[in-house]
Specification:
CATH topology of one domain: Rossmann fold
Number of helices: 16
Number of strands: 25
CATH superfamily of one domain: ANL, N-terminal domain
Helix content: 25-40%
Strand content: 15-25%
Shape: globular
CATH class of one domain: Alpha Beta
Amino acid sequence: MVASGHIDTFARDNLPARAQWPEFKFDLPELRYPERLNCVTELLDRWVAAGQGDRPCLISPTEALTYAQLAERVNRIANVLTRDLGFVPGNRVLLRAPNSPMMVAAYFAVLKAGGVAVATMPLLRAKELSYPLAKAKIALALCDARLGDEMEKAKLQSPELKRIVLWGDGAADALETAMQQPGYDKFSACDTAAEDVCLIGFTSGTTGEPKGTMHFHRDILATCDSYGRYVLRAEPSDRFIGSPPLAFTFGLGGLVLFPLRIGASTVLLEKAAPDDLLGAIAKFGATICFTAPTAYRAMLGKLSEHDIKSLRKCVSAGETLPKPTFDAWHAATGIKIMDGIGATEMLHIFIGSPEDEIRAGATGKVVPGYEAKVIDDAGHEMPPGIPGRLAVRGPTGCRYLADNRQWVYVQSGWNVTGDTYMMDKDRYFWYQARSDDMIISSGYNIAGPEVETVLLTHPAVAECGVVGAPDEERGHIVKAYVVLRPGHAGDAAMTQALQDHVKATVAPYKYPRAIEYVVDLPKTQTGKLQRFELRRRATDSAGRKLAS
C-alpha cells in the first residue's frame, strides 16, 4: 500500500478489509491516476497555474468568484485549519451550510489540507447531526452562522466535537476574520495518496442506520472522467445549475466536480425550489441543470413564465425518471432529460446515456469505465428481459466506515445496489423497483414505480407514491397515495377512474386496490420519495382496520 499523507489514520484504519472491497476497474486511460494525488490540485489549482484564473467559477445571488479568487479563499481557510485550529491531515471536518461559494471553499480547503470532509444536509437537526459526529469521530465543524444554533445543540450531545467555527456573522472569532491574516493567501496542497480518504458521505438512512461511504481522492476525479467525460459531455463554456445539496453526492458532482474538472462555471442557489430554479436559469443563463424528476414535473406548468432558452442539457437522478415526465419535458423544451442511477456508495452516476443514445423510459446504458449486470439471488447473471438485482463495478465503489453491512453491498467483487432492473437485448437497463419496493400480491410481483408511472399519465394526478399494504387475503395489495391537481376531487368516482386507467394501461392485476388522497408526499431533503414512510402508513392503516 502506498504511504498515506494522513497523520491521523482514523479513516484508513476504519476502511473495510481489502478482501471486502469491490473489484475496481481502471480500463480507461483517463482513470489511471498517479499514486500521489490531491484532487483539489486537479480541480482548481491547475487552472490558475495555466493562466486561466480569471475564468468565472462560482456564481451565487450574492457574489461571484473566479478560479483565482476561489483558490485564494481555499488557501486562506486551509491556513486557518492548519495554523490556528490544530488540524492535521486525516482529521475529519463536519461541514454545514446551504449551497454557496463559501461552502465549496470550505470543502476544498479541507481536502487540500489533507482532511476528510463530512458534509451534512442543512435541514438536519441536532439528533441527526450527532450520528456522523460520533461515527466519524469528528472534533471540528465549520458551519454557516445561520445554522449555528442546531450545531451548538449537537455539540452538547456529541463529546467528540470539540470546536465549532462559524462564518457569516462578522464576529471577532468568525472564520472569515481569521482568513484575513497576512500570508494566508498561499497554501501548498497536502501530499496525499490517491487512495487517501477525502470524503465520507452518509446515506439518508432510509433503510436503517445511516452508513458512512468513504471515497478517495482518485474517486473524485474518476466520476468526472467517466460519467462527466463520456456521458454528460459538457464544455468549458457551460454554466451549471441545480437543486441537490452539496452534501448529496449527486449535487457535489453535478454542481462542483463536473464543472470544475473542465474549467466551466456553476450557479449555487441556497433556495432551489422549482420556481427558484426556473428564475435562476433565466437570470444567470444556465445551460446544464441537475435536479430530481419531481422538480422537472413541477416546473412544467411554469415554463411559460420564464425564459430558459439558454438551457441545453438536463440531468435527472435520485429517483427513476417516469416516462410521462420525460415526454412532457421533451415536448415543452426540446430537451431530452438524461436519466441516470447513482449511489452514495458509488459516488455518482454509473448507468446513464448521452442524449443521442437515450431510450425513453430506460435508465440507459452502463457508463464507460463501469460494468453492470442483472443477477439472481445466488449471484448468477440473468439473461436479457428477466428482472433481477443490479450489480455494478468500476473505478468507484463501496467502502463503508466500520460497518458490517459491507458484506451486504459488496458480493463477489460486485456492488449490489439494492435495485431491481431488467436489461434488454441492446444492453439498456430498465428500472423495475428498489428491491424492497417490489410488491408481492397473490403471487404476482408488482413494481410500485411502474404503477406510479401509469398514474402520472392521468391528467388529474400531480404526484403519487405506490407501495404494498398488508392484506389478509392477498398478503399485500397495491396501495397508491395520490396528490391531485387543483380542480379534482378525491372521491369514489376519481378512484374508479384511476383504477380503470391503470387496468387499461398495464396488466390488470397491477391496479391499486386502495387509493388514499393526500395533500403532499413525504420526501427526503433531496426530493426523493420516502416510500418507507408510505409503507409504514399503509401498515398502520391496515392494522387499524383489523383492530376495528
